[in-house]
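2024-03-11 09:14:02 INFO worker-7 job=invfold-0412 stage=load source=structure_tokens
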């Protein structure tokens, strides 16, 4: 049986439409963020899945790049985003793809971090910090549930864990409850924005 760290694990789920995490549109807090900060800049959506948010970023003036290592997710995202944005959607591994350091102004998170086993969280923090420009923003939805390993994915964060994980790389600038969560995440999702600091580990 494949493991969440392998693209096969996710690919088969897209192929059989077993995707209970898929929001099917653009969630409200992201819409509000894009309204608040509709400016040019480069945005990255790692683990984009069907990528409903790609067009929203583009429409708000961002040069958006989305990436997923499951070919069926990439195909779906390209189909949904349309031909004008298809080449902005890359098949690849977030941890290995050859993006230059400090490429992005914004990295958008939704159900990607919680798809990774908890041992990969420091690597996620380091990689996002590496790819963001100084003062760039890691924004999005963070899932809080102390999940036993055998029950995930999704693997939620324990309360306080994100503070410790991100403390030396990011400053938390917004932390709001989420009102339009899917049942899988209801009551346990926060909309958070973190600014990348100068710290180098
Ligand atoms: C739970 S899904 C979330 C998809 C999307 N963000 C959403 O909100 O619908 C997790 C996604 O992350 C992708 N993924 C997991 N590990 C990855 C990696 N190392 N590099 C790129 N994509 C990855 C999976 O293929 C899957 O599409």
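2024-03-11 09:14:09 INFO worker-7 stage=emit residues=201
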């Amino acid at each position: 049986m494949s493991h969440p760290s392998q693209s096969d694990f996710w690919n088969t789920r897209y192929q059989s439409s077993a995707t209970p995490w898929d929001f099917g549109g653009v969630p409200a807090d992201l819409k509000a963020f894009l309204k608040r900060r509709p400016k040019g800049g480069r945005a990255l959506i790692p683990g984009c899945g069907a990528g409903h948010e790609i067009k929203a970023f583009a429409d708000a003036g961002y040069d958006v790049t989305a990436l997923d290592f499951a070919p069926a997710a990439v195909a779906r995202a390209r189909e949904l985003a349309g031909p004008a944005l298809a080449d902005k959607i890359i098949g690849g591994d977030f941890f290995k793809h050859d993006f230059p350091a400090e490429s992005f102004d914004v990295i958008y998170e939704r159900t990607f971090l919680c798809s990774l086993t908890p041992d990969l969280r420091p690597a996620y923090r380091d990689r996002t910090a590496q790819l963001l420009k100084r003062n760039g923003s890691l924004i999005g939805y963070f899932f809080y549930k102390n999940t036993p390993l055998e029950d995930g994915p999704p693997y939620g964060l324990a309360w306080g864990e994100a503070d410790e994980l991100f403390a030396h790389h990011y400053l938390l600038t917004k932390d709001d409850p989420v009102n339009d969560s899917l049942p899988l995440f209801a009551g346990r999702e926060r909309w958070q924005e973190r600014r990348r600091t100068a710290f180098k580990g």
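2024-03-11 09:14:09 INFO worker-7 stage=report msg="Strands lie at 42-46, 63-68, 89-91, 104-110, 132-143, 170-177, 189-196."
2024-03-11 09:14:10 INFO worker-7 job finished
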